[in-house]
Structures are given as C-alpha cells and as structure tokens.
Amino acid sequence: MRQPDQHMNPRTRRALEFVLDNLVWFMLVFVLVVFSIAIPNYFQLGIFANIIEASSVLGVMSIGLALVIITGHMDLSVESVAALSAMAVGILFCSAGIGLGVQLHPEWLMVPVSLLIALAVGGIIGAINGYLVVKVKMSAFIITLASYIWVRGLVLVISGGRSAQDLAPAIRWFGIQRLLGLPLTAWIAIACFVVFSLIMAKTPFGRHLIMIGGNETATFRAGIRVNRNLVIAFVLAGAIAGLAGWLLAIRTSGATANLGVGLLFNAFAAVVIGGVSLKGGVGTLPGVYAGVLLLSAINTAINLMGLPANFTQVIHGLLVLAAVLLDAFKQTIRQRLA
Amino acid sequence: MSEPLLVLDNVTKNYGAIEALKGISFSIGKGEVVALLGDNGAGKSTLVKIIAGGLEPTSGRMLFEGKEFLAKSPAEAKAAGIETVYQDLSLCTNVDVVANFFMGREITRKFLGVPVLDEPAMEQVVEKALASAGTRIPSLRTNVEHLSGGQRQAIELNRFVHFGGKLVLLDEPFAALGVEQTRRGLDMIRQVARQGIGVVIITHIMQQAFQVADRIVVIRQGVVAGDVARNKTSPDAVIDMITGETLAGAGPAG
C-alpha cells in the first residue's frame, strides 16, 4: 500500500496538524461566510452581535461541562443546576409571581449577593456530585443523571410550578447595559472563556486535569492528588452552571420552573463539536467557544430564513453526529501522521 | 552490606482469603542494586506497590532510613524520596514529552500570585536530561501517543534518573526496549546506584539481573525464597530458587 504520509515534509504536517487542532474555528468561519452569502441580511454587525449575545448562557454552561469531560468524567446535572440557581435568584430578588422582592441597600449590593447565591447553589451540588464520584466511586454518568433529575425536582418543589417575574432592575442592568455593542452578560461569558482557557493551558491545575483525563492511574502514581482535583473540577462545573443560571435569570428577568430545559443537550453538542473527546484528556476551551458560536450562528440562520424553530433540534442532532464522526476521522488522520 | 536504606520486616498482604504476601523480610542498602526475581504471581509487583504507596500492607512494618515508614499514597512515597517505574507505563499519552517528564512537579513561576507553568525552563531541563542519556526524541512538544514504546520507556527511565530521590523501584523497566537501549538502561541503573541511591529492579531476565544487581532476592509464593549476593550464586541456582526445586541457594539474609 502506498503511504503518502511518509513523504510529507514537516511543514505540511505542521500545517495539517494546525488545521486539525482548530478545525471547529475553520468550520465556524466557513458557516458564517456561507450564510452571509446565501442568506439576505445575515451579514450585519447586529446579527453577529446577536450570535454572541444569544450564546452567553450556553457558553458559560459549556465551560463547566467541558472541564469535567476533559478529566474523563461527565456532568449531566449542569442544566438543572443552572435552573435551580436561577430559581433561587428569582425567588429572592423578583417582585412579582412567587418572588419575595428582597431589597438591599444600596441597590447594587444585590448584584454580588445574588451572584454569590447562584455560585454557592451550583458549587454545593457540584461538591455533592464530586464527593459521590470520588469517595463512593460511582460512575459520574449515573450520579449526575440522578442530580439532573432531583435538582430539577427541587426547582419544581420550591417554585410550586409557578414562576417569578420582574427581577430587580439593579441586577437586570447587566442584561441591558451594553459595551461595544454587546450586553455585559455576553462579556461575562467571554471573560469566563478567557479565564478558564488560561487556567487549562497555563496552570499546573489545568495541566493536571488534562493528564487525569489521559491516564488517571499514571497521574495518581506520579503523586498528583487526583481525588482533590476531581472534586474541584465538579465544584467548578457546578458553580459555573450556577453562573449560567444567574445569566439566565437576568435574560428572562425571572425564573420559571422549566427554565433552561434542553440546554444540557445543546451544551453537550457544543462541547463535542468544539473538539472535546468524550473519552477525556482531549479538547480546549477556545474550541468549545467556537462550538457554541457555531450552534448560535446556525440558530440565527434558521430564524432569519423563517424556518420553523423545530428544525433547530434536528440540525443540532445531526451536528452532534457529524462532530462525533469528525472526531473519529481526525483520530485516523492523526494516526497516519504519527 | 552498606547502611540499610529500606528494611522490610515481615510484610504481608491479603486479598480476602488469598495471601499474596505471606511475610517478606529483606533490606536494601544505599547505593545497592537489588534484583527481585520470582515467577509470575509470586508477589513482586504487589511488594513494589506497597513500598511505593499504591497499596497498604495487611501487616508488618517498614523502616526507611531507620524510621518507621508507611506510604499511604504515591505522593507520600515520592515526598520521602521513593521513585517508581511501573511495568505498564505511567505516561499520559495525550500530552507532550515535557508535560510527562514533569508530571506532578511542574516548574512554575508566579504571575499576579498565580502559579503559571514555566514551559521554557521545563523544556530546557528535559532537553538536557534526554541528551545526557543519549535518548533521541524528534520533538519534545509531540504528544507521547506519537512515540514508540522504546521512546516512551526512555522518558520514564530518564525521569527517575533526573529526579533521583533515595530509592528507585523498577518494575520490569526494559520490557519494550531494544538491545542497545537496554544496555544503556542498565548503565543508567549503575550510574544511579553510584550516587548512593538504592535500586530495586524486578526482572524476568536472568542475564539482566546478573549484569546489574549486587544482590538477588527471590520471592516464591509470597515469601523470600532466597537472598544472596550476586557473586556468590549462579543463574542455575537462582532458577532453582524461583521454581522451588531447592532452598539450598538461600544464603544468610543481608
């Protein structure tokens, strides 16, 4: 059999590896170009801003999910955790519906307090997940599936199935105030991606998470405190989901019992499309962000074309399928390169 | 024998009703190379894991540098100065050579109070370490999954040579190496021992044991079946000890 790869010079190989590593970004650019040409009115700054804006909640949630998947585990509870955090913020700081309308003086104090509550709610559930995975040594898939169900149940219980409306204006300010054409909530998502990308790429903690995902036994033998790192990853995933919930509450100016239903699968799609391997150890957060933007770009296109929104789900499903196939394909190419 | 570095005193390990180790006692001196021999399932790997902190013994005690010693985790053993190279390689193939070399003890510098990986510094160290050992790896930034078995094992061997410590445990370290690389590996072991580091090497290959070891310890069915100086025994006598034909070759312990 002919093996063309053996004759490949180092430069072509490096170029090819670069393309493989950043494939999702090329896909994003490709999709944006195609839509801009094919769909009237797509090529506008406002549309692009909208793509970024619409992806902030999903983006933040995907960060936490990606962290845990990169360590070789799973967190299915992020969607319900976000809903619970949003409900907690909604009940405390909304003035209509089941909202208690808690007022703090000065008003801006409600921002850090509501944010801390959202993060704490998420962090606690993340800690429970992490503890069960590490200490009881149960499969993260099962444990977080259970959390996915009982946390959503808790949302229903505390809300009685009703909703909270009219979030305090001081908190909503984040969803209204714009900076360079983007609302502050979108900037929060972008900042999260930057911070966590740096943590994963540049700090020993991030390096350890990636290595744990690659070979947990080896990291344990090398003296890395695997359990501690895993619990931290789960707590982070929970707290980040809490932040996503806080953003969600701001965006909808309140919380309903079924808030955020379906987000988990979109987050999942974004993470897989972004190049994170479900086997663990492979993937970067910038890639995940590109995955999130890709989904959002496609949603926007569907809206603009006036297709029924139901099509989005079909397309997302196909995209996930394509991403998994692509992942397998990339691995084959990489093996050829090696 | 030189000053004892590690003394094992009647160490046992049970898995339920199964006695993997029935009471192991021997010692390793500073700068001494001990070859641990025994048939499959004799308990060699279990013993190594107990010393390295991967397993806890059921009973018995260990003295490390004269002090009571029991590592509850590999991290503790490592902190005490015990390095281990396992038979199934302990590398993360999804990261590059440098990351593997420094696994768990990365060089960092502070940036705004946050520890940040110092990649250039680490790369330099790895480059030097591999060059001095004569190991050639095309790029230190390639992921280990792209490297051959021999190159992978070389990373592990160079890792323990570099970080040294006080005692090195090698569980079948040459399984994937070629002839020349094995010779170099054996040289490395002698070189490490000359620095006063104790070495325990598990091997199946009699020739390697006789090439490198000062003392040969044979484990059979969870007990020490022989503990002899290399120059006072022969491969045939050792094989007899391994298979249980005779215990006559067993000299005085230590």
UniProtKB/TrEMBL annotation, chain A:
Membrane topology: Multi-pass membrane protein
Annotated compartments: Cell membrane
Predominant localisation class: membrane
InterPro entries reported in the protein's UniProt record: ABC_transp_permease (IPR001851)
Matches recorded under Pfam families: BPD_transp_2 (PF02653)
Keyword annotations from UniProtKB, A to Z: Cell membrane, Membrane, Transmembrane, Transmembrane helix
Keyword match Transit peptide: no
Protein origin, superkingdom: Bacteria
Transmembrane segments: 20-39, 45-69, 81-102, 108-128, 140-159, 179-201, 230-249, 255-276, 288-305, 311-329
PANTHER family associated with the record: ABC TRANSPORTER PERMEASE PROTEIN YPHD-RELATED-RELATED
Stated name of the protein: Ribose ABC transport system, permease protein RbsC (TC 3.A.1.2.1)
Organism from which the protein derives: Mesorhizobium ventifaucium
Automatic annotation (TrEMBL), chain B:
ABC transporter domain ranges (all copies): 6-246
Gene Ontology terms for molecular function: ATP binding
Alphabetically ordered keywords of this record: ATP-binding, Nucleotide-binding
Keyword Nucleotide-binding: yes
CDD domains: ABC_Carb_Monos_I
InterPro entries the UniProt entry points to: AAA+_ATPase, ABC_carbohydrate_import_ATPase, ABC_transporter-like_ATP-bd, P-loop_NTPase
Short name of any one Pfam family annotated for the protein: ABC_tran
Magnesium found in the keyword field: no
Superkingdom of source: Bacteria
SUPFAM superfamilies reported for this sequence: P-loop containing nucleoside triphosphate hydrolases
Protein name (database record): Fructose import ATP-binding protein FrcA
